[in-house]
Amino acid sequence: MDIASRRSxxxxxxxxxxxxxxxxxxxxxxxxxxxxxxxTGAIASLICLVAPIWINAAHDYKNxxxxxxxxxxxxxxGMAVMGKALISPANIMMLPGIMxxxxxxxxxxxxxxxxxxxxxxxxxxVQSPEPLGYSVTSSNVTLLTALGGAAIFIFIGAMIFRHEMxxxxxxxxxxxxxxxxxxxxxxxxAATDALTGAANRAAIDQILAAEIDRSRDAGRPFAVVVxxxxxxxxxxxxxxxxxxxxxxxxxxxxxxxxLRTSDTLGRIGGEEFAVILPGVSxxxxxxxxxxxxxxxxxxxxxxxxxxxxxxxxSFGVAESDVNACGADLLERADECLYSAKRGGxxxxxxxxxxxxxTVSASRxx
Length: 365
Hints:
Elements: H1 3-30, H2 35-57, H3 64-83, H4 89-105, H5 107-127, H6 138-190, H7 201-218, E1 222-229, H8 232-239, H9 241-256, E2 264-267, E3 272-278, H10 282-297, E4 301-303, E5 307-309, E6 313-319, H11 326-342, E7 348-350
Parallel strand pairs: 6-7
Antiparallel strand pairs: 1-3, 1-6, 2-3, 4-5
């Protein structure tokens, strides 16, 4: 049980007890008969006795039977005390009613109800010309004892039920949050390349389609860069696939250093990647691609016993136009990429600027 639960249960148990003690003192001062002391005192002391047992043991549901047995003994002791009192039904039934309000509305509002009930009780005591006595017969004492015990049992049962409901709600909320986190992780994994951490092909297609729509609505261009690691099969054949995987991972790492937070890098093939650059013209994208190319060329990966791997990459750049679709844009960038490979590799080639577009004035970081 956490600290907040302990404090809450302490409030539920102790506050009615405080009211009971107050009523006891008022009864002793203003009533001519002593039964008010025994009746309300029995209820107050019983609640105060139950409180520490409940707070320290009720959360251990493996010992539920032992706990309820202890509560039963306390109930019997309290009923024995109350059975000796000359009490009014209004007195003995008042506190359980206030307890019920407390459970139903929460301890803050319940405290307000307690104070209001206490004010009414004080008013009745002060204004009454005669003691609030009650004629005593054996049947009345038995009835009131049973009513008092039943009311307290109902209160304790309601408290346990409420605590279980609160715990169930907390467990449900925790399970809901865990499911949301798990679903978010699942969606992230479903859109991410497992090896490199870049977006996968499905995510690139989705982001590209959304960017085309935004570009048309805003009337601004954007660019796509496609690049491919040169002679990557040779790297795998010479140094092994583990070395090839290290090259892919390092390539993604250094390329991300060039990109802005709004840009998206994705792996769309074995050694082929695509970059979506929102709000960027073809000319600006060419500059960014050159920076990526230089950073990839600076990679050097040592392979034990086999030397080092220094990859290069060829780039193709295409700028969107108002009639572009995702497949067409990637195809145009691919054509520029293959032009770069035919031109000797380790270079950037850009396609012609589409007609009807304007160069964005946004600054590229």
